């Protein structure tokens, strides 16, 4: 009987962990979904900064998302030029 209770608790706990994923498998978020998600992350985490760099040729805003573990946003762009920078192009 105890084994079934533990199995049930294990299933409930880990089903919550995996329910937090927004995109599963081989899927890609839309532009608006991704920007909304990045805005939420930048609000909830001080290490993530999202900058609107202006409109694209298509008319949508171009954003730069910087993961800034050092939390020195005044030097962020200077450091991005001097150090390794990852560009996410969706």
Give an overview of the whole structure:
The protein is of the alpha+beta class and 90 residues long. The chain has helices spanning 2-18, 31-44, 76-82, and strands spanning 48-55, 61-67. The protein is extended, with a radius of gyration of 19 Å. The mean pLDDT is 74.
Characteristics:
extended, 90 residues, 3 helices, two-stranded antiparallel ribbon
Short account of what is shown:
This protein is α+β, with helices and mostly antiparallel strands. 42% of the residues lie in helices and 17% in strands.
SSE topology sketch:
Layout: H1 2-18, H2 31-44, E1 48-55, E2 61-67, H3 76-82
Antiparallel strand pairs: 1-2
Q: Compute the CA-based radius of gyration.
A: 19 Å
Overall spatial form: extended
The SSE string, one letter per element, is HHEEH
Q: Low-confidence spans: pLDDT under 50, at least 5 residues?
A: none
Roughly how much helix do the residues carry, as a percent range? 40-55%
Discrete helix count? 3
Average pLDDT confidence is: 74
What is the strand content? 15-25%
End-to-end CA span: 50 Å
Largest sheet features: 2 strands, antiparallel
Structural category is alpha+beta
Task: Please give the number of β-strands.
Answer: 2
Strand order of the largest sheet: 1-2
């Amino acid at each position: 009987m105890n084994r079934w209770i533990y199995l049930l608790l294990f299933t409930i706990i880990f089903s919550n962990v995996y329910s937090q994923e927004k995109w599963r498998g081989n899927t890609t978020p839309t532009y608006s979904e991704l920007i909304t998600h990045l805005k939420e992350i930048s609000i909830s985490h001080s290490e993530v900064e999202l900058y609107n760099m202006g409109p694209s040729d298509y008319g949508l805003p171009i954003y730069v998302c910087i993961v800034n573990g050092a939390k020195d946003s005044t030097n962020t762009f200077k450091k991005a030029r001097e150090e390794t920078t990852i560009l996410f192009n969706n």
